[in-house]
Amino acid sequence: MRKSGQITVFLSLVMLCVCSLVCGLVESARTAGAGWYLKMAADSAMDSVFSGYHRAAWEQYRLFLLEYEDEDEPGSTWLKHMEPYMETHGWYPAVIQSASVKEISRITDEHGANLKQEIQDYMRYGIWDTVAEESEAETLWKELKEAESLQTVSEAYSGHAREAARMERALEAIWKSLESQEEHRKKAAARLAGWDGSGFRTAAKQLKKEAERLPGLIKTYEKKADELAAHLEETRADTEQQRDDLSEGIRSAMEEELASYESYISENGEKRREIEAMLPGTEGNTALIDRAVEQSYEVEEIIDDWDDEDEGDEPDEDALWGSVEAVWDRVKIPELSFRAGLKEPEKQNLLEQIQQMAGLDLLMLVLPEGQEVSKGVIQTKGLPSVIHTEDILKDNFLERILTDEYIGRFFTCFLSDDQKAVRYEQEYVLGGKSTDEENLKFAAARVLAVREGLNLIHILSDSQKREEARALAAAITGITGTAPLTGIVAFFVMTVWALGEAAADLKALLAGDRVPLIKTKETWKLSLDGLLTLGEQEKVEAGQEKGEGKRYEDYLKMLLFIEPAERLYYRVMDVVQINLSRKQPDFTMERCAYQAKIVGTGTGKHLFWLGGDPRYTMEVHTDKAY
């Protein structure tokens, strides 16, 4: 009896299909798991690579920097960290045979954005109690912008005040020349009346010599007048943007003071026409002088040649010399309808001396007694800020506050106790010079400029101080009322007054004291008498403020606040590189990674495989950033 095997064959085929399906599903799931396992292993290995950050950079500056020798190093290091995962693969056998570094973003890349991100990430934790709100930062930025803009405008126009003073001296030279000519004319007339031909000719020649000087004096005056008018036009164009940065009240007060410059130029046009009108008369006087001198010789010759025996009487000397007097009386010395020059030029010179002191040797003027300037030298070759010179990166207010706070916490300045070879790190970030002394001088000059602008804002806002400045200007010029020259000198007095107070402020700051951002009548220290004394003695007394106001470090932060972002971050990198390279001479920020992307390639192995070679190619991508 035969048995049928159809069912057995059918079930066998069904079981084969089911097993194949199950194995396929299991292999598919295992393959997917192998991919996830490999990705997990790659990311973990990448974490291990980035855990090898530069320890000194973290300890000193809280920066994560992955230092590498060449661009293949992160890939080879990553392969080593992948080995344990390949050895303990379990259900996911695979071998990663090579690694390719597709991209390395260095800390110096992205125009400084990488360093900026690290600083922001660190500073956003645990420091909110010491950082101002964004609205406060915006107000501070506007105040500083206004102070620097006002200082720029006032400095430009104070230079024109000196030009106006030189013009007045040129006018005074013309005035004195006319006075001298009149004296010589009267002296010659007196000698002529006494029939003193020799004395007359001496005085006449002196008059002629002085008259011949007058065209040159007028030309000098015209040159200075043309220069002042041209420079004022340039300054008006150059300071237009700075004027727009001023608040309405300050701009109105400043425009009121600067109106004197326009009036002075306008008034000077009338003076100039009057002065130019003297030239024809001066030329005519020269001809008359020559004629009178020549005629005096003829008179003396007639008298000397007179023969008493032939003529029988004395010559009429009175008539002879009278003919010379008739010519001489036609010599008219021009007169000016105005009095030129400064009544008390020595006070003007003292004010100019203060400006010169602040510009020539600022540190000697404001450095506290007993303090010495560091002689540190910075080797700028190879520094990030030298290599990267664009200015693209931007900060918002809050980001800049955090960055400035970071710089203040980790970098030294003039008042720091750290005895480093290069001590003034914050000043370097601000100035970027190659020596500590140059950086301190640059920072001090910037603080002085800000303080000068803030002080001038106070003066322009204080009607009493403006009147005091006008009174001193009137004493200098000898002109009462609202004459244009007095207005020009008054604004110059205000500018130098603000500068003198700023120098006292700066000396106090460098001594570790505080100075209020905006002065009041109570916190203002320097009187106008004290200002003139400063010009005489060339010595600044610190205007100390105990317990109120801002310190020197705060002013540095405020100045850093308005610096271009990209320049700021690269100079921060400079300082980090300078200090880390002292113990590690070959250290450079250019060889420090912030982010890396690696692609690993290798082979995997199928476990549930009935075909040929069970191996297949695998590729894994991973990236990491601090």
Sequence-ordered SSE layout with sheet pairings:
Blueprint: H1 6-50, H2 55-61, E1 66-67, H3 73-87, E2 94-106, H4 113-123, H5 134-193, H6 197-238, H7 240-244, H8 248-276, H9 278-305, H10 308-311, H11 317-328, H12 345-360, H13 362-366, H14 384-387, H15 397-410, H16 425-431, H17 436-461, H18 463-477, H19 484-510, H20 528-537, H21 552-561, H22 565-583, E3 592-605, E4 615-625
Antiparallel strand pairs: 1-3, 2-3, 3-4
Helix pairs in contact: 1-3, 4-15, 5-6, 5-17, 5-19, 6-8, 6-9, 8-19, 9-11, 12-19, 12-20, 15-21, 16-17, 16-22, 17-19, 18-19
Descriptive terms for the model:
626 residues, alpha+beta, 4-stranded antiparallel sheet, 22 helices, elongated
Describe this structure in words.
The chain is an alpha+beta fold. Helices cover 66% and strands 6% of the residues. The protein contains 22 helices and 4 strands. It has helices spanning 6-50, 55-61, 73-87, 113-123, 134-193, 197-238, 240-244, 248-276, 278-305, 308-311, 317-328, 345-360, 362-366, 384-387, 397-410, 425-431, 436-461, 463-477, 484-510, 528-537, 552-561, 565-583, and strands at residues 66-67, 94-106, 592-605, 615-625. Helix 8 (248-276) crosses helix 19 (484-510), helix 9 packs antiparallel against helix 11 (317-328) and helix 15 crosses helix 21. The protein is elongated and about 195 Å long.
